[in-house]
Amino acid sequence: MDAKDILGLPKVSLPVQLEKKSRPQKDSQRKPDGISREVYALTGGVAPLMPSIDVNQLKKRPQTENEKITWEWLSFTNSARKDDLKLYHWVRVVNGTPPTGDYSFAKYNKSVDVIKYTDEEYEKHLTDPTWTREETDQLFDLCERFDLRFVVIADRFPTSRSVEELKNRYYSVSRAILIARAPSPADVSGHPLVKEPYNISQEIERKRALSMVLSQTKQQERKDAEILTEAKKIMESRMAAKAAQDAELAVTSNTNPEDIEKTTAPVETASPSNIQANSSVAPLMSMADNAAAAAASLRTLRVYLRTYALDQMVQAASSSAGLRTIKRVEQFLQELKVNLKPKVPTKAVCAEHLELRKEILTLLNLQKLLQHKEEGSSYREGSYTETPDTPKRGIDQDRTFVPDSVSFGAISTERVGKKDHKRKGPGREAPSSPAQSNKRPRKLKATDS
Question: Which positions fall inside the Myb-like domain (predicted)?
Answer without folding.
Answer: 127-176
